[in-house]
Amino acid sequence: MASNEKRETFSSGLAVFFATLGSAVGLGNIWKFPYLTGQNGGGAFLLVYFLCIVFVGLPVMMSEFYIGRTARKNAIGAFKAIMPGTLWKHVGTMGVLATYLIMFFYSCVAGWVYFYLFKALTGELSGITMEGAKAQFGSVIMGPWSPILWQCIVMAVVSGILIMGVKQGIEKITKTLMPLLFVLILACDLRALTLPGAWEGVRFLFHVDFSQLSGAAVLTALGLAFFKLSLGLGCMITYSSYFTEDNNMLGTAAKVAFSDTLVSLLAGLAIFPAVFAFGMEPGAGPGLLFMTLPLVFAQMPLGNLLLIAFFFLASIAATTAMLSLVEVPVAYCIEERGMSRTGAAVFNGILIAGVGVLATLSVDPSSLLGQMTFMGRGFFDWFDYLSSNILLPIGGLLTAIFVGYLMPREQVVAELTNQGRLAMAGMVGMLYSILRYVTPVLLIVVFLASVGLVKL
Ligand code: PFF
Q: What are phi and psi of 291, to 5 degrees?
């Protein structure tokens, strides 16, 4: 689609909701959220995370929705359209860069998830032992060829769906798969919560202990909130540029933030009770999903079926989130570089799989890249750290300043109330004030703390 052709939009409010939720729900809920909560002490971390969602996540999401639907353009084009001839377009450029960094490692983890689903389907994981679980994870991440192959399969699936466009691709897939994901996760919860000793895991998740909460953990919670809600990199700008005129965007933001957090908690409730019931280590780190879970499920009746369900839902989550990530550069390439949708989706798929190989090989201890670290981090960890902890919070801060200080209040209220048709001017006004006075301060303090300039 060249920029002068008619731009696609989602077809209804429900489509908007599922697509946006599809972006938010991803490996973040199933992989990052549980292990970060595990490592940072459970309930106290959760509480900080909730505060980050309300005081930072929601206002920034509202800002991105405002920018996207007002401009109806990609992440860079939107800033150009609203503030022509200024440097603000580079907030979009930074967003595209962050999108690539995330995709480099995200497509690698998604590849592992697909591979585990395949292994679960072929019955290779049933009856697995502790040693076996470790060996399985080793064989999945150990290359060179199989993790790279799975990463390429992931990118082929994502690009293939994006080629079909906003309505036929993104909308159709998310509307079908998101409800299924809910059903699958509830099935896993039901099983995990009825295990003897499951209560320990529930207590672990909700027990509040502030002594475990460090400054670094607060930054992690903030980074996680951004990553979870797909904020700070223009993803929500891109998606909202496809929203319908009559969408209640504040309602969408609230419903998405709520449902996404619910999915994270449901994932935690499927994982921790099972982990405790079988005496595993809740703070096991990134391997929690891949090593602990197969082991836990293997020991239950109907375990293999649950494993298939779990890795299927994880594959759905990863795929719908990647659709929204890759759509950021795809929309840019179509609208600013004059590419066709097919060309843009194929080009970005190849680019991400190509550079993403660095992340994939860097977690394989037997490869040359696996032994290379720069300041203690390999490629995989650098991509993750730079995007989640640095670029997303900076992108979020600049977006908050852009809307909170450069866009007149009446204009923001008008757009978010659909020119006064929605009776929620008071609510929007309140969020606008939070956006001006609370969000930037929180972001700056946490950011300075993370680089060691302020002590939290
Ligand atoms: N929100 C997704 C998750 O939690 O897995 C990841 C993500 C998607 C991050 C889209 C950023 C983004 F733009």
A: -100, -45
pLDDT at 2: 45
Longest CA–CA span in the chain (Å) reads 63
Domain edges within the chain? 13-357+385-450
Contact (Cβ atoms closer than 8 angstroms) between residue 51 and residue 445: no
Query: Separation of 257 CA from ligand 1 center, angstroms?
Result: 12
Q: Which residue is it, tokens 């470790």?
A: 134
Rounded Cα–Cα distance for residues 320 and 18 (Å): 10
pLDDT confidence of residue 1: 42
- Cβ atoms of 184 and 393 within 8 Å: the answer is no
Helices 249-277 and 198-206: angle between axes, nearest 10 degrees:
140
Whether 263 lines ligand 1, by a CB cut-off of 6 Å, is: no
Q: What is the DSSP secondary-structure string of 162-201?
A: HHTHIIIIIIHHHHHHHHHHHHHHHHHHHHHHTSTTHHHH
Q: Are 296 and 278 in contact (CB under 8 A)?
A: yes
Atom of ligand 1 nearest to the CA of 99: 13
Task: Write down the pLDDT at residue 316.
Answer: 94
Is pTM beyond 0.90 here? yes
Q: Whose CA is nearest to atom 12 of ligand 1?
A: 230
Residue range 173-196, pLDDT digits in tens: 999 999 999 998 998 888 888 888
- Which residue's structure tokens are 């150009």? 80
Low-confidence ranges of the chain (pLDDT < 70): 1-5, 284-286, 450, 456
Distance CA 357, CA 145 (A): 10
- DSSP of 253-274, one letter per residue? HHHHHHHHHHHHHHHHHHHHHH
Cα 228 to middle of ligand 1, angstroms: 5
Q: Classify domain 13-357+385-450 by CATH number.
A: 1.20.1740
Show the CA angle centred on residue 73, arms to residues 72 and 77, nearest 5°: 140
CB of 396 sitting under 6 A from ligand 1: no
Q: How far is CA 89 from CA 75, 100, 201, 369, in A?
A: 8, 17, 46, 35
